[in-house]
């Protein structure tokens, strides 16, 4: 089974990186509060992440395509993650934390995208399910959210750097054993990027899905606050993340069985409709326990949407520019949408409460779903299979 064995380091990398990501997403706000920052200051620090990713994602994607290697870029970024995280956690003043945070996020934000780009290419090369590889990231996220939460509750959030460095070091060790992608073509030039920027179906697709991704990122930022508003504890917030990510892992794991049944845009429309329904139901509940149960929908929304969108843009962009195209998608999903979702979501939940926030998120996702239906009906959605055949 040499093919499956060659994927083991990649699965381990995704597991370890997403385990580190959980630590930052779940516990960095508490760590910064421990450092003495107030809510507004914490918000500024957290906004640095998506802002840095807007620049970092396309940069590292371009470098990967230019030098025809995902593995070397991953190694550079993971080394950068380890060094910058040590420095980041030493900072005390707000300005120092923000500046070092920008450096930290510049190296960390592209790792997930580069890992997924490599997973997509390896899956295509070996004719295996991308979801079967990507689910290991979700398992790492879920495992870390349970174990690290328990550890930090006993030793204190001020020591969160130690589990972070542990998973980061393991990620670096397994990255050396990755099988790189091979692309037989001339080196990418800066002018080649215009092929992505002038690809109308790709740009229109990114613009439409932002109506969905903004709601997803707003939920990432404020589900904990909403559960707290409904009277839930920190334990319930951790459980909500765990249930959501486990359902996501299950969707990824079984992607090989359901994913090729229909056109990828059909799955994106289904995910969009479920996103809208999910947010409308969240806005109507008055007990945080219902939110925990409904987190099962996270797998059916994000899991289906992410797999389908990633597969679709892979078909839309030339093989020469795969990493760049993937990381621009990430910059929109986790960068631009993250900033808009965090800023508008924060203002809405402060002024009108979580119920209004989730109600408006439901309408926003509905607009995105309708936009995707129109996009599918227009010629753009029908061009993809022909383009794919030309590439193959």
UniProtKB/TrEMBL annotation:
Coiled coil: none
Lineage: Bacteria, Bacillati, Bacillota, Bacilli, Bacillales
Positions of transmembrane segments: 12-32, 44-61, 73-89, 95-114, 126-149, 161-179, 200-218, 238-258, 265-282, 288-307, 327-349, 355-378
Keyword hit for Cytoplasm: no
Subcellular location: Cell inner membrane
Classification via SUPFAM superfamilies: MFS general substrate transporter
Record key words, sorted: Cell inner membrane, Cell membrane, Membrane, Transmembrane, Transmembrane helix, Transport
Official protein name in the record: Transporter YwbF
Membrane topology: Multi-pass membrane protein
Organism: Virgibacillus oceani
GO molecular function: lactose binding; lactose:proton symporter activity
């Amino acid at each position: 089974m040499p093919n499956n064995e060659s994927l083991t380091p990649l699965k381990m990398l995704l597991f370890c990186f997403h385990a580190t990501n959980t630590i930052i997403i779940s516990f960095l706000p508490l760590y910064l509060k421990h450092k003495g920052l107030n809510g507004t200051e914490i918000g500024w620090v957290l906004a640095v992440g998506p802002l840095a990713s807007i620049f970092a994602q396309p940069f590292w994607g371009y470098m990967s395509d230019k030098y025809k290697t995902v593995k070397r870029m991953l190694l550079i970024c993971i080394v950068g993650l380890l060094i910058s995280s040590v420095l980041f956690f030493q900072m005390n003043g707000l300005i120092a934390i923000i500046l070092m945070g920008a450096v930290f996020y510049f190296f960390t934000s592209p790792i997930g995208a580069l890992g997924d780009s490599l997973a997509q290419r390896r899956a295509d090369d070996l004719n295996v399910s991308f979801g079967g590889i990507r689910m290991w990231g979700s398992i790492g996220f879920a495992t870390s959210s349970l174990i690290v939460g328990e550890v930090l509750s006993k030793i204190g959030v001020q020591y969160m750097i130690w589990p972070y460095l542990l998973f980061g070091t393991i990620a670096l060790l397994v990255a050396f054993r990755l099988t790189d992608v091979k692309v037989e073509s001339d080196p990418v030039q800066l002018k080649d990027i215009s092929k992505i920027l002038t690809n109308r179906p790709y740009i229109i697709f990114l613009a439409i899905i932002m109506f969905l991704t903004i709601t997803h990122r707003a939920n990432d930022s404020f589900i904990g606050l909403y559960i707290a508003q409904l009277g839930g504890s920190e334990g319930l917030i951790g459980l909500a993340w765990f249930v959501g990510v486990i359902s996501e892992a299950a969707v990824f794991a079984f992607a090989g069985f359901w994913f090729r049944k229909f056109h990828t845009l059909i799955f994106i429309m289904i995910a969009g409709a479920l996103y809208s329904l999910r947010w409308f139901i969240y806005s109507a509940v008055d007990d945080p326990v219902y939110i925990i149960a409904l987190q099962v929908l996270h797998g059916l929304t994000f899991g289906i949407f992410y797999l389908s969108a990633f597969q679709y843009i892979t078909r839309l962009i030339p093989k020469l520019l795969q990493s760049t195209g993937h990381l621009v998608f990430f910059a929109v999903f986790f960068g631009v949408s993250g900033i808009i979702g965090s800023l508008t979501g924060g203002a809405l939940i402060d002024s009108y409460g979580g119920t209004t926030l989730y109600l408006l998120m439901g309408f926003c996702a509905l607009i995105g779903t309708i936009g995707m239906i129109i996009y599918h009906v227009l010629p753009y959605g029908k061009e993809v299979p022909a383009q794919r055949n030309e590439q193959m």
